[in-house]
Predict the structure.
Amino acid sequence: MKILAIETSCDETAVAVGEGKAILSNVVSSQISIHRKYGGVVPEIAARHHLKNIIPLLRIALDEAKVSLEDVDVIGVTQGPGLVGALLIGISLAKSIAYTLGIPIVGVNHLQGHIYANFIDNPELTPPLLALVVSGGHTELVYQSDWGEFEVMGATRDDAAGEAFDKVSRLLALGYPGGPAIQEAAKKGDPNSIPFPRPLLDEGFDFSFSGLKTSVLYFTKEHKIYNRNDVAASFQEAIVDVLVIKTIRAAKKKGVKRIALAGGVAANERLRQKLEEVSKREGFVLYKPSLSLCIDNAAMIARVTYEKALRGEFSSFDMNAVPNLDL
Ligand code: KG4
Ligand code: ZN
């Protein structure tokens, strides 16, 4: 089964070609440098750049995979969650190609894609597993009992983890995107220097990071002179602590042995390191995608498309973008 996969949910335009479970090509064009001057993704600009880039990327992905468009058996495309104008570029292209070639189309949930990135790097991995999905828009603890079967055990009540990284980075004038900027500053700081709160630590599986962000704001207002690297390191440690403790608690509750990291924040070195340490100590096996599969990409969409196509779970041609699509 040859798969063409398209991802345009936010600010990366991405196309991948897969054959069964294998990924033959995976190309991404990031718009980070375009949105940097605005300090965040501007939806209208993102959509326009997707439109400009998507056809050239499609050509590159097919060339790299040595697959011609006529050989493609099924098209997978991100249906949501994401920015509606951005999603529509990918969906319109996917529908046009599928209709022209007379092949089926599969609408894919972006968050499911992030989780399935783990199955690309680890072919031996299968459900059941507990996934921590941490991205710019989401923070969710997801129990995956089987292929395509998800239970969201907890989610953020306000800011997503990535959003908190981005906002604190802006507050500290560390740059955009915030996650990598905080991570680099934190390497030069002391993570134990400022006791920022660990929100909702003892309460269930939900998260709340907006209060933590406000604590950082108050700290910077109270202390006119402070070490930015210490603030970054202490903030990162607080957020990582909460994510790690809740993930382990959720995995224990479900009695699973496998934990999977997913989403853009899964690229965070401290999170990867600490979750690895604690997972080992507590008897869990941690799976984490390689860095290029943590950020938004279409290989993860191809992997979901394969599983859904195997089961005949195709979408109709009146499929639409769903900006707040749930797992
Ligand atoms: O999954 P993703 O690429 O896009 C969404 O689906 O939202 O995630 C983007 C988020 C941004 O908030 C970015 O700051 C964060 O992932 N991020 C990181 C790191 N790299 C990216 N957060 C912490 N540490 C990182 N190294
Ligand atoms: Zn994402």
About this structure: The mean pLDDT is 97. DSSP finds eleven helices and ten strands in the chain. The longest helix spans residues 228-254. The first strand starts at residue 2 and ends at 7.
